[in-house]
Amino acid sequence: MISRKPIFGFLFVGLVVAACANRPVPTLTVQSEPEPAKEAAIDRSVAAENLSPAELKSKFGTNIPILTEAELKAHRERMPEFSKIASACVQKHLEDHQSFHEAYGVSNYIGVNTRILVGKNLVPLKSRWKEGESDAKLQELVVASYADWEPKNKQLKKQATIGSADKKRIKNMSCIGMTINCMKEAFVGTNQAGVYEKFITYYRKPGKAGIQAYTGHPMILGLKYGFGWKVAYWNPNPSEDSLKWMDTAPGDPPFRNHKLRYEEVLSSNSYYKIPVDLLLVGEEEWGQDHRQVPKLLQSTPFGVFGTTDFYHVGPFSKGQITEAHAGMMWFAQNSSATDYEKSKRVIESNPFSPFATNGAPRGHYPTGIVAIPPN
């Protein structure tokens, strides 16, 4: 069985597609007192590869974050506070969603891939509002849609209207959007606004063919090569039967590549051509039932995961994933109890254990990578 150990590789990047989808997964035993990880202190990743700024730009794009030694030192020293702020921000989003749903029976976080009601007709939100347009326009559409919603099931909560103050709580949200928002809050809150600009510029415009902007690909590349975060590959059960199930079981997302990525990790120490530093694979990390949360993930104050070639990304803290789903309906469109329960999970938090009942990431996301910050 493969154990957690340092591994190294190099990078040549390809196309990624990002979205946030959701589907229930197949009981969880979390180890009660997580022990500190025994890994060595995280050092600047590029140092081991002796890459100059010019080489970094050539390999990963012209906008790859290049931090000064002073900025790197400050980033490491401020990491405890950074993690605290980022985790609190994620929790704030979760609680805001939960309290709004408790009051109105719908979520106030609206994914761009969902639909709204116009009269009695369901229409794609994208046909009436696009990312980048004002929150005010989105809020008006959602309030009008809510007014048109007539749940046939009397158990579903429905108020006459959404209050004017609560109307302002309505926002567009996605898995990566929530992650970026909370990382920005952490960067700014730890006096790292300048390096945040380097990070977000690369995320928006990598400057390299094959690295798709606004996805988890440049986000994790920037964290690894700009900020010295480590990358770990996770896979609770790499058996042949398990890998076959991962790639063929019905449901979202539309593409898998779990076996391909596992073979890539074994052959080249990389995931989607991103060099991997650590392995979290098999029974040694996940237990004999493949459902325990690895100690390293339990002991990480804040990190970022990416799965299924970055189709889904999100933050995690101390073994718990909090994820937003851009494709999940924010209200019970069919007035069913099942749809109502789904709308409660537009933002949700569950243990980092994809094979567990109510484990995360929720949906068909059994393998992937995580970016872990400097200690």
State the share of residues found in helices, binned by percent: 25-40%
Unreliable segments of 5+ consecutive residues: 8-19, 21-48
Order of helices and strands: HHHHEEEHHEHHHEHHEEEHHEEEHEE
Radius of gyration: 21 Å
Counting DSSP H or I runs of 4 or more residues, the number of helices is 14
Mean pLDDT rating? 86
For the termini, the CA-CA separation is: 27 Å
Task: Kindly estimate the percentage of residues that lie in beta strands according to DSSP.
Answer: 5-15%
- Widest sheet: strand order? 8-5-13-9-10-11-12
Note the main sheet: 7 strands, mixed
How many β-strands, per DSSP?
Answer: 13
Q: Structural class of the secondary elements?
A: alpha+beta
Bulk shape? globular
How would you characterize this protein structure?
With 375 residues, this protein is an alpha+beta fold. It has a domain at 45-78 and 173-327 and 344-372. The protein has 14 helices and 13 strands. Strands 8-5-13-9-10-11-12 form a 7-stranded mixed sheet. Strand 6 and strand 7 (274-275) form a beta hairpin. Helix 4 packs across helix 7, helix 7 runs antiparallel to helix 8 (193-204) and helix 8 (193-204) crosses helix 9 (216-227). The chain is globular, with a radius of gyration of 21 Å. 48% of the residues are buried.
